[in-house]
Amino acid sequence: MKDYKNKDITVHWLPELCTHPGTCLRLLPEVFSLGSRPWINVDGSTPEKIMRAIDECPSGALRYSLPEGSSVDPNEACGVGNLAFKKPSEEPVKIKVIKNGPLLIDGNVILIDSAGEIIKEDCKMALCSCGRSKNPPFCDGTHRHPK
Ligand code: SF4
Ligand code: FES
């Protein structure tokens, strides 16, 4: 996990989970820009706008947290993109099938490998359904490339 931070917000980036649909680039190009280095500029917008954009990340590759002393209202920071976010346990898990793309998990799940080991516990995941991901069982965007 890579962190990008200022005094008010930390953006966490898990590149191996990104499915590359570009939601973050579209929603907040002043913060998320592939043409810039680093590609995440946490000073490019307000923490609130950054948090709302990250809440929309379908794969969970982007997350946020508030550093100690942050001036952001914690009530603003309780969206699904918060690193510590947990869905209410009584909510059913939703799985959205993306045509020619991943299965998007929306709900608390425990992902277990063939040996019975826990791979990940989370409320947001994008799972590969094409069989070509280099980071199975997670989608890594490979489905977008021609075979
Ligand atoms: S999956 Fe998340 S991090 Fe990757 S491009 Fe989409 S919104 Fe951005
Ligand atoms: S569905 Fe995205 S890499 Fe397989």
Radius of gyration: 16 Å
Number of alpha- plus pi-helical segments: 2
Number of domains: 2
Which whole number gives the mean pLDDT? Answer: 95
Number of strands: 6
Low-confidence stretches: none
Molecular shape: globular
Share of residues in helices: under 10%
Termini separation: 29 Å
What is the second-level CATH architecture of the largest domain?
2-Layer Sandwich
What is the makeup of the main sheet? Answer: 3 strands, antiparallel
CATH topology of the largest domain: Alpha-Beta Plaits
CATH C-level category of the largest domain: Alpha Beta
Element-level helix/strand string: EEHHEEEE
How are the strands of the largest sheet arranged? 1-2-3
Strand content: 15-25%
Associated small molecules? iron/sulfur cluster, FE2/S2 (inorganic) cluster
Structural class: mainly beta
